Amino acid sequence: xxLRPDSLEGTLNRTLRWALLTVLAALVVVxxxxxSHLAEGPTRLVMSAGSxxxxxxxxxxALAQLAATHGAGFTIEVRESGGAEAxxxxxxxxxxxxxxxxxxxxxxxxxxxxxxxFPEVLHVVAQRDAGIRTxxxxxxxxxxxxxxxxxxxxxxxxxxxxxxxxxxxxxxVELPAQDAEQALLSNRVDAMVRVIALGNRGMRELLKxxxxxxxxxxxxxxxxxxxxxxxxxxxxxxxxxxxxxxxPEDIEALGVRAILVARENVDDAxxxxxxxxxxxxxxxxxxxxxxxxxxxxxxxLRRFGMPLxxxxxxxxxxxxxxxxxxxxxxxxxxxxxxxxVLSGAWQANRWLAARRKNRGDEYxxxxxxxxxxxxxxxxxEEVARIESELLVIFRAVVDDLDNDRxxxxxxxxxxxxxxxxxxxxxxxxxxxxxxxxx
Length: 438
Fold this sequence. Notes:
The chain is an alpha/beta fold. It has three domains: 43-118 and 259-316, Periplasmic binding protein-like II (D-Maltodextrin-Binding Protein, domain 2, 3-Layer(aba) Sandwich), CATH 3.40.190; 119-258, 3-Layer(aba) Sandwich (D-Maltodextrin-Binding Protein, domain 2), CATH 3.40.190.10; 323-434. The chain has 16 helices and twelve strands. The strands form two sheets. Strands 1, 2, 3, 4, 5, 6, 7, 8, 9 and 12 form a ten-stranded mixed sheet that branches. The protein has a two-stranded antiparallel ribbon with strand order 10-11. α8 crosses α11 (310-316). The longest helix is centred in the first third of the chain and has 36 residues, at 5-40. It starts with a helix and ends with a helix.
């Protein structure tokens, strides 16, 4: 027995009414949700950032300024802390949303990596006559460490553990950086330790004192085997001063990388916006903090073993085409064909790497030519002209870096020569000013 036309019409009308009511209810929920978020305003993120005047704190302030300028949908409140380890604890305790840590930090389970920032080097500075040539010579010596909570102390103790020394075997005192420098200069300690970016101005000034010397980490390669988040590196001859050359020869060292991390429960959309701000506004960030020229993205960041925040993953995977998942089997077949050309691709990659290295060498030579021109300059106008040439070179390096035409490994030497040129500009201007502009 079928439905009569009027019965069918009634059924349809009731269905339509219920559908309309459902749609209206959903719209009310969506509008209410949107209005509530609009009323909340931008998300406030608390960043634990190290001590005032330190490189972590300076970076955090630069990032906060950039977020405010761009109206990125979030604001950053920068808070002072004891250093990388203290920042990690703040993340674990929930008193910070963002933190700056070292790549060798054992990240709290609630922490997720966002971006790799700038490389840092473990500097061990000793009295020249204290008989300290390697870390093994530190036994029985007075050592100034950074304040409790600093990543410097954890990195240093990890190195000393490799040499067979426990914390109780060492005579240490924890001091703020400036106090540690004064204690070293006044012979109240035999050595001081600090993890800081290579070429840091304060470290360059300290090592101008001829009675101080850098200690080489003679087993850096072995230490890296058991602590892969630490990297064997070299401090090049003249990296901290060109005349006289400090160090006087290349010395082995260990490096880490500053990492921006976030709590796992920070909204994915906020972290995606933060990551986008970091990389899409890189040139503006460079103007505020030059060290950010050395930032690395998700692919390079994964080698440190830190899990990425889902919001950062969204940004890093933004260019992944959707068909990669849909046609996974077809792509696998294509990969088998691509194996036939791997040899040629490998050779091409070697050629490109050599080309990028050559480009880095060319920029370094251009900087050195500018340094020589500055030394020979005879007027303030000539100094200004050379400074303009330096800025042109700097912009070209940033552009080449963004377009993968320049090896990041060449940047430490470029940065060292760049800092030397900037110091020389200031010195020459002061000389001309003292001589009435002549």
